[in-house]
Amino acid sequence: MSSYNKTDAVLEILMVLLAAVFLIPVYYLLVTTFKTPSAAVAHPMGLPLHITFDNYVNAFKAMNYLRVLSNNLIISSSAVISIIVFSSMAAYSLARRMHRLNRFLFMLFMVGMMVPYQMGILALYKLVIQLHLMNTLTGVILIEICYSLPFSIFLFRSFIHSTVPFELEEAARVDGCGVWRTFWQIVFPLLKPVIGTVAILNVLSTWNDFMTPLLFLQSREKGVLLLEVFRNVGQFSVDWTNLFPMMFLAVLPLMIFYILMQKFIIHGITAGAVKG
Amino acid sequence: MNKFKQFNPESSYLLLLLPALFIYCIFFIYPTLKTSWYSFTNWSDVNPVHVKFIGLDNYVALFKDSIYMNGIKNTFIYALLTMIGQNVLAIPLAVILNKNLITKNLLRASFFLPGVFSVLVIGFLWSFMYSTSDFGLINQLLGSIGLKKINFLGDPNLALFSIILTQIWQWVGYTMVIYLANMQSISTEYYEAARIDGATGFQSFRYITLPLLIPAISFCTVTAMISGLKVFDIIYALTGGGPGHSTESIVSLMLKKGLSDGFYGFGSAFGIVFVIIVGIITFIHMSLIKLWERQ
Amino acid sequence: MKKARIILISSLLVLTVILSACGKADVSESKSESESKSNEPSTSAEADSAPAKKVKVTLAYWNKEESVKTLLQLVKDKLPDVDLQYQFIDNKQYNDIVKTQLAAGEGPDIISGLMTDPNLVQANYFEDLTARFGGKYYDSGTENVTYNGKLYGLPQASWFNGLFYNVDLFDKYNLKVPKTLDEYFQVAETFIQNGIKPQAIAFKDMYAPAQSFIALALNDYMGTPEGKDFSVAFGKGEMKMADVLEPVLNTWTEYIKRGIFTKEMLGIDGPQALDEFASGKAAMYQSGAWDMETIKKKSPNMKIDMFPNLGTKGGPGWMVGGPGVSFGINKSSEVKEAAFKVLDLLSTPEGQKAYWQDNQGGSSFLKDVTFEMPEQYNGAQEAFKAGNVIYPPNVWGVGRDTTFAELGKGLQDLVAGSKTPHEVLVAADKKQQEMLSKTK
Questions:
Q1: Quick check: helix, strand or coil at residue B41?
Q2: A156 with A88: CB under 8 angstroms?
Q3: Contact B26/A126 with Cβ under 8 angstroms?
Q4: What's the gap between Cα C109 and its chain centre?
Q5: How far apart are CA B169 and CA C242, in angstroms?
Q6: Residue C412 belongs to what H/E stretch?
Q7: pLDDT the model gives residue B48
Q8: At what angle do helices A243-270 and A65-96 cross, to 10 degrees?
Q9: Once rounded to an integer, what is the mean pLDDT over residues A32-39?
Q10: Taking a C-beta distance cutoff of 8 angstroms, is the pair A81, A206 a contact?
C-alpha cells in the first residue's frame, strides 16, 4: 500500500464529513428520545437541554421490555443455531454427493431464494393452524429457519466446494470414520469463517423480521420488540416524541451487538480479505 | 476398513440432508404447491366452502386491471433504482475506504450502521423526517435556508423516489462492505504494473478494478434486484401504498387483495405471476452479467 | 466451479469464495462467545406464564387507550377477578390484523367493530349474544350487528363527526359560525389571509378525505329526499356513484381550488393534523368525541365548539355518524365467561356512562339510559334535533370499508391532480362491483 499523502488527507476529511451527514438520521433518532415535542420542533438537531430518562422508563414499561426482549433472544438464538446446524449438514451432503437427486434438491433449495414467502402466506397460515403452531415461538422459529435455509445452504456448499480439501476426508474415511463423524470432527471445524458469515446475516434477518411475528404471534406476551413499536405507532398523537425511545429501545440490542462485534461483523462478511 | 464398508455412506449422506429438507418441504414447498392450486380456484372469504376450479380467470382479471399493472411498474422502478443507487454509490465508497485512511475502520462501521436497523424502524424514523408538518426535520432544514417545503411522501410523483432514497441510504454501507471484500482479494501487483505503464488512477480503476469486481457486482446487483422486487416493509411503514395507489408494490397489492379483501384465489394467482416475473428477470440479469464477463 | 450449470450459481459462487475464505482465527473465536450469550436453543418458549388468579381478557380497539380509560378503570374496580388488557391497533391496520387473527382461530377475546361485516359473521367468528343481551338495546343501535334475529355485538354510545372549531380564533377575527358552504369558504378566506390554516385534515390517511366528501354528499345528495335511497341501492350494486355524485364531487373540488385543501396536506398524518388544530395553527378540524381528550390534554384552556358538516344549500347540516363501536365476543375465546362479565358490566347504566365519559357527545343505545350533551357540541344541536346523523357506508355491505377506502384513495389522487372527479367515482364503483362479485 502506498503511503499517506495529501490527496488521502483531503479524501479523509471529505469522507468524515460525508459520514457525519450520513449518520444524521441516527443522531436525530437518539437526541429526539430526550426531548419534548416542542423542544424537538424548536431545536430538532440540538443536543437535549436536560437529559431525562423518564421517557425511557415509560417506554420500557409500556413495551414490557424484558419479556419481549427475551422472546427476541429465544427466537433469534434458536433459529440461528438450527440454521447453522441444518444447513451445514445439508450443504455438506449436497457438495459431496453430486448425483442427479442431489442436484435437483439443490435447485429446489435455490428456488426459495427468489420466492417471497408472502406468496404462499395463506397456505402457510392454514398449515400453521393445523399444526397447532399458531401463536407459539416454535412456529415462528421453524418458519425463520425454513426461509433462511436456501441462502445458508448456498453459502456453506460453495465454501465446502472451494476450500475444504477432500483429501482430509478421504484420510479420515480410511481410518474408519463414518460420514457423520467425518462431518462433525473434520469438516465442521473447518467451516468456521462461513459459520460466522451465516450467523451474522441470520442474526440480523431474524431479529429484524417483522412480518412473521406480526402474522403468527398474536398475544402480547409472545410478541417481539418490533411488534411493540408497531402497536404504539399512532398511540401518541400529541406526545409524538414518546415513540422515539421505543424505536431506540427496539434497535438498541442489535446496536450493542453491532458495536461490540463491529470489527468482527465487517470482517465476517469480508473474511478472506488478506488472502494475497 | 471393514466397518466403513459395512455402513452404507449413501444413507448417511441422505440423513444429513433430511432435517433441512423436512423443514423446507413442510413450510415452503407444500404451501407453494397449495398456492398454485388456489390460483385456479374462486376461493374467497365469502366462499370458503364450495371452492370451484375456474381455470385462468384469476390470471386474466389480473392483467386487465390497471391498478395491478401500475403496481408491477412501481416495483420495477423501485427494484431498478435501488439496485443502481446502492451499487453506483457503494463502488466509489469502497474504492476510497480501501485506501490507507486513518479513520477507515470507523468510516466503514459508520456507513454499515443503518443496515443493522430494522426496515420498519427506518421507515417510521424517515416518515418523521420527511413530514411536511412542523416537526419534519428535512423540511425544517430546507425552510431554514429559505427553500420551499418538499412534500416527500405526499406528492404521488415523488413518494416512490423518497422511499427509494431511504433504502439506498440504509443498504449502501452493506453493499460497500461486500465490494471491499472483493477488492481486497485483488492483488496489488496489477496496480503496480499499471502504474509502471503510466496508467492514471481512473484507467486502473476502469481496466483492473472494475473487471475484477464482477463477482461482487453480480452478487450485489442480483440480491438487490430480487429483494427490490419483493419490497413491502418499507412501503408499509412509509406510505401504506399511497397517496392513492401511487406507491403500491406487487407484494403490497397481493396482500391487500389476497388477504385484506379476501380474494384468496386471486391473491394466489398474483403470487404465482410474481414468482414467474422474478424468475425471468433474474435469468435476464444473470445472462447480461455473463455476457459482460465474457467480453 | 465451472461445472455449475446455472449462471446464478457460478457467479454467486465466486463471490462466496472470496467472502468466506480464510477468516482470521481470532475473529472466529469471538463469534462463539456471542452465541453462548443468548439463551438455550430449546423450545422452552412454550411455557405459559399466566397467573392463576386473575383471568386475562383482551380487548382490541382502534382508538387510543385514553379514549376508554374510565371504562378500563371501572372494570378494574368492579371485576376483581378479571384482568382486562387493552390492545391498541391503529385504525389503518385494525381490520387486516384482527381478520387474520380470527381466521387463525385466535385474536382478542373482546372484539371491536367487525361484527358489521356479514362475511365474518357468516364465518362464525363471533359468539351469539342474543340469549344474554337480546332486547336490552334499542334496535336502531343493533340493526347493524343483528343477522337473522341473532345479536352479535353491543353498540356503545353513538359516534359522529362534525367540524370542531377554535372559538378564540373565530372571535379574534370576528367570524360567525358558517351555515352554508359559501359562508365556510369566506371564513376560510379570512384565515388564509391571516396566515392560519383554515382546516387541518390528514390527507395521508385515506379515510380523512373520504369522510370530508361523504359529509358534503350527505348535505347535497344522500340526505335529500332525492338521494336518500342511494346508499342502500349502492350497497346492492343497483346504483353507481359516477351517475349521481359527480356534481357533489365537483363542489368538493372547491376546497382545493380555494387553497383550503392543498397537496402539501397529502404528507400529513392523523396525529399531525390533530396536533395542528390542538396547538391553534389550524382553525377547524373534522373529527369527533374520540379526539376530545387529546385536545384538552394539549391545550387545556382552548375553547372549542363544533358545527355540523355543511352543504351548499344550508339547513341544519349533517353529522357523519351512527351507532358507536360494537363490542362482541370471539367465538374461539378461551375465557368467554369472563368476557361475558365485562359485557354485562358494559350493559349497565354505569358501564355505559364509563364508555361515554371519554367519548362525550353521543347517545346511549342501552334502553333507559340518557346522557346530556356536553357544551362543546352546542353548535351542532340543530343537526341532532333534525336527526341528521348517518354513516352511509354502514349499508354498503361487503364494500363497507374497502370501497370507502378506495374512495379515499381516489380523492388523494384528485388532490394530487392525477385523477379527475369522474375517474375517482368510477374507481369507487368498480371496487364496489368487485367486492360484490365475490358473493355471486
A1: strand
A2: yes
A3: no
A4: 20
A5: 43
A6: helix C402-416
A7: 65
A8: 20
A9: 84
A10: no
Which grid cell sits at C160?
359522529
Q: What are the tens digits of pLDDT across the range B167-182? A: 999 999 999 988 988 8
CA distance, residue B11 to nearest chain C CA (Å): 25
Q: For chain C, what is the mean pLDDT? A: 82
Helix (H) / strand (E) element for C304: namely strand C304-307
Where b means 16+ CB within 10 Å and e means fewer, C354-385 reads: bbbbbbbbbbbbbeebebeeeebbebbeebbe
Q: How many CB atoms lie within 10 A of CB A195?
A: 25
Q: Which is it for strands C55-61 and C110-112: parallel, antiparallel or unpaired?
A: parallel
Phi, psi dihedrals of residue B213, rounded to the nearest 5°: -90, 0
Residue whose C-alpha is closest to residue B20's, from C279, C251, C17, A149 = A149
- C169 burial via Cβ count (<10 Å: 0-12, 13-18, 19+): buried
> What single-letter DSSP state applies at residue B208?
I
Q: Is C288 exposed, middle or buried (0-12, 13-18, 19+ CB in 10 A)?
A: buried
A125 within 8 A of A215, measured Cβ to Cβ:
yes
Residues of chain A numbered 32-71 and touching chain B (CB < 8 Å): 37, 40-41, 44-45
Chains touching A (3+ CB pairs < 8 Å): B, C
Whole-number Å distance between alpha carbons of A83 and A77: 10
Residues 182-211 of B with CB under 8 A from A: 184-185, 187-188
With H, G, I as helix, E, B as strand and everything else as coil, classify residue C85.
strand
CB contact under 8 A, B29 and A108: yes
Tell me the residue type at C365. Answer: F
Sign of CA dihedral B65, B67, B73, B75: negative
Nearest Cα neighbor of A93 from A105, A77, A75 is: A105
Q: Are B229 and B252 in contact (CB under 8 A)?
A: no
Q: Where are the beta strands (DSSP E) in C141-227?
A: 146-147, 150-151, 154-155, 159-166, 197-200
In this structure, which long-range contacts are made by residues B207-216, counting pairs with CB atoms below 8 Å and at least 24 apart in sequence? B209/B95, B209/B183, B212/B182, B212/B186, B213/B91, B213/B179, B213/B182, B213/B183, B214/B289, B214/B292, B214/B293, B214/C11, B215/B182, B215/C11, B215/C14, B215/C15, B215/C18, B216/B178, B216/B179, B216/B181, B216/B182, B216/B183, B216/C15, B216/C18
B75's enclosing H/E stretch is helix B66-97
Residue A10 · residue B101 · CB < 8 Å? no
Helix-helix angle A54-62:A65-96, to 10 degrees: 60
In this prediction, residues A39-53 reach a mean pLDDT of 81
Alpha carbons B47 and A16: distance in angstroms, whole number:
60
pTM of the full structure: 0.84
Of the candidates C160, C157, C162, C119, the one whose C-alpha atom is nearest the C-alpha of residue C140 is C157
Q: How far is CA B226 from CA B79, B223, C55, C246, C253, in A?
A: 8, 5, 47, 43, 42
| H or E element in which residue C100 lies | helix C91-103
Q: Which residues of chain B have pLDDT under 70?
A: 1-8, 46-49
**What are the pLDDT digits (tens) for A226-270?**
988 887 776 666 677 888 999 999 999 998 988 887 777 766 665
Chain A CB contacts of C91 below 8 Å: 234
Cβ–Cβ under 8 Å, residues B174 and B115:
yes
